[in-house]
Amino acid sequence: MKFTYYNKLDSLRRYQYNYHLNKFKFENNVFLGKLNTILSKLYNNNIEFNIINQKSVTLNTDILTEMLTLKIRREKTNIVPLIKNVLQHFKLPKTNRVQEKSGWIKTSSTSLLENKYKNSSLISILNKNNLNIDENCSLNELLKEITNYSSKSFVSNGNINNVSNKQDYNNISNIIFNSIKYKNLEGVRLQAKGRLSRPGRADRSQIKLGWKGGLKNIEASYKGLSTVTYRGFDKPNISYSVSNSKRSAGAFAIRGWVSGK
User: Fold this and answer.
1) 241 FRET partner, CA 20 to 30 A, in 40, 63, 90, 113?
2) Domains in the chain, start-ordered, CATH in brackets?
């Protein structure tokens, strides 16, 4: 009992030390200020730090592939169980794939938002050809006309901060939030390729694959809607990264794809 108590105490001290270290790194201005002056002298330019608190490594393919390469560099690592273990950390939303691929389910009511516009994207809704509005119309007045809100719930100046009815405010915020694309995970694919055999064997290069979900863009592939395209082979809904490393058997590479919807 005495040893278990000291082990738990050491683990708590370790967590406390990491907490204070991260707080000193990012929240305290002393460390970032000194680092900013050093980097500014090296690059002869102004440096700006944009720090993002990320909840999971699954949201960034660069961190994910780098983590896998560090683990595969160990000689006794079994690659297939490692990839399966990583894929278990991806929590995909539970959706009806048939309903999602078929598009919007429309009813006989013509007043619904689904029947007025081709999709729920805010860019499609803000198109002036679809609405009888002026060019100087504000976003609040536009959303009020789209959703057929009563004029009693809005003040005369149309400021969203002065909305008296909380239900109307929540509906407007939901429309804006739902129009943001690629905020949910759709699928992931991991590929390990190279000299992945254990030392002492004469195997050639191997390929190990693991995937969960899909990588296709649902709006472009199934619904027939237009999407933004990037220059080259990059797709707007996929984040891709590759990481190279070596081990005693030879070189290998880890490739990762994470898609959103």
Assistant:
1) 40
2) 1-51 (no CATH), 57-93+184-260 (3.30.1140.32), 113-153+165-179 (no CATH)
